[in-house]
Amino acid sequence: MLLSRRAKEIVLSILLLALPVVFLFANIKKPHQLNALDRVVLRISAPVQYLSYMIYVRAQNVWLNYIYLVNLKKENDQLRMENGVLKANNSILEIWAQRGREVEKILGFKEASPSEMIAARVVSKSLSPYYRVLRMKIDRGAGKIKINDPVVTPEGVVGKVHRLYGSYADILLSVDPRVKIPVVVKRTGTEALLVGLGDEKKYTAKLTYLRREEEIKPGDIVVTSGMGGLQGTRYPADLPVGRVTTVYKKQFGKFQSAVVEATVDFSKLDKLLIVVTPPPPQDSTPPTIEREKSLPRVGLRPY
Amino acid sequence: MPRTTILFIFTVMTILLVEPLLLAVVPFLGTAAPEFGLLGVIYFAHGVKGSPSRGAFASLGTGYLMDLLTGAPVGMFCFTYVAMYFSIRLISFKIYGRSIITQSLMGGIFSAITGLFLVSIDKWLNPLPHTWALLNQIPRQSFVTALFSPVYFYVLWLIDRRLTYEAPHEGVFR
Hints:
Chain A is of the alpha+beta class. Chain A is 32% helix and 27% strand. Chain B has six helices and no strands.
């Protein structure tokens, strides 16, 4: 039976509305999984976005390095002076570092983090404020990176790898409500769970499962606890995450909460480091209930 | 080449090339950025008369690209944009979009509805704490989109007029 033109349009319109619903229900549980078509589109689009971003970076470099040179001499003199002070401070710190290394050696600590880090560059900022995702280009070693690997900068935690396609990847920022990070308040040693708030202008997150009896103050530094396994991401310990701005303490209940402002300014990110998480050690013996009980608890301990 | 296809290709190129550049250069309100994809959908629905399925296909394509570029679960923007396309198409005869102010208002209002739609679907399908906090983004996002609406509609109309025969010569949304 032949359908009229109008009927065909109606059927097609219903199909076009239904198709995304099918996509959505198929993807909602595992949004990081991409099919072949998704990967092809992303691989084609990423270099185009990168090109656009590079045009901006080059233009900015030309402007800042060759045209906009006001106050350069004054700044140079000031920097020379600061450099002298820093050199003096550095030599003092070198002595302290040497002493620290000796102490570490005596105590048997590891000298450096066992994690390998891979460098990456930001390709595009988040296109929608409803999803805190950055796109990055991985310079070398893209094959070693896995989904959920932590992304950091020397200033602190940035987020985790959300999607991977070739030498490009999407990062879910630590202020996204989908990201949870086990943290410690540095001053008190209190463990808590950091969950993104989605307040984009201030880049804030919330400290949850924070025991009520702990005295948390605005200004306290929050760092990663190094405990892991949560959402498959294990952040290296002692990385700065943010600073407490507000504490919410009720008269009842087991927990208090606090708002934390991120140490990293996500709007100015350029170069990033991806922490390639080492695989857990292989154990050939099958787990038993007694053995599992004897193992140290890994993860967040709210009680 | 059909009108919608040309306009769709232009919208895709704008999302890929202009939007990252604008985000890097212009100090917007936080990460709020003009939703060129949505503005394209409004133009397909209100500016291009003819087969609705062609416009819906273009909206689906734009939504799919936005899903991939923003990190949203695939289908989120696809569904929202197609739904927006049909909604605008249905009320198209009641929308007056000839002046700059009404075009701005149109961009802002539809951006707010899209934002509300996205956050609600996200909350419904994937309940997470603080998802409703994303509602705070809607006013800023709508404002920035509203600012860019008349300019982008005008550029779309210019391309439409140059490359196709069916486009009205009197102005945008005539």
